[in-house]
Amino acid sequence: MFKNTKIKKFSLLFVLTGAIAGTAIAADYKSIIVHRQGIYDVMAGHMKVLKSILFMGNENISSVNYHAKAILEAAKHHGNAFPKGSDKGKTHALPAIWEKPEEFKQAGQKLGKALQEFISVSEMADKEDLKEMQAAFKKVGEACKGCHKKFREEL
Ligand code: HEC
Fold first, then answer.
1. For atom 36 of ligand 1, which residue has the closest CA?
2. How far, in Å, CA of 47 to CA of 144, rounded?
3. Residue 108 Cα: closest atom of ligand 1
4. So what's the pLDDT on residue 3?
């Protein structure tokens, strides 16, 4: 089904979820929070670029695949992003992350799957693939929002 066999499904299981177990010392929390927020901002930047191409007529269609892959790459670099105790400080992370770690993990996996599909449909894409890419992009957006709804405070 997927054109892109280079992406190992295995690694996707760890997208965004590497991390709930494990603890860190208090001084680390600030750097952990800033780091994870920075990763999310990077992902949001790519989503913004993709929106301009897929929905606003920007012509850089051949870049869609790059941005899709870059979101996955950023997500993979989350590291130990939600250790216990990192609910304190300047963060919008909700306690549900630590109360329902399985659900949180699944929300991350949902994004991983949606990204895999998006990367696959945007490989070697041209204008004829626009509709398919739009649909795949929407699923990625839904995976972001799905997690935010349950696990992030309203910004
Ligand atoms: C598995 C859950 C989950 C998924 C999936 C997820 N996010 Fe988030 N996101 C969070 C949480 C939790 C925070 C709050 C982090 C904090 O404030 O410490 C957050 C914060 C953010 C922020 C605010 C960062 C800041 O500077 O405060 C942005 C922007 C964002 N996410 C974008 C995205 C985008 C775009 C996607 C999809 C490509 C995405 N997120 C997918 C859980 C998720």
1. 144
2. 10
3. 1
4. 47
Phi-psi region of 2 (alpha: psi -120 to 50; beta: other; left: phi over 0): beta
Q: How far apart are CA 139 and CA 145, in angstroms?
A: 10
> Quick one: average pLDDT of 72-77?
96
The pLDDT, as a whole number, for residue 116 is 98
Report the half-sphere exposure of 14 (CA within 13 A, side-chain side): 15
Over the range 106-132, which residues count as b (16 or more CB within 10 Å of their CB) and which as e?
ebbbbbbbbbbbbbbbbbebeeebeee
Rounded Cα distance, 139 and 137, in Å? 5
**Does the beta carbon of 92 lie inside 6 Å of ligand 1?**
yes
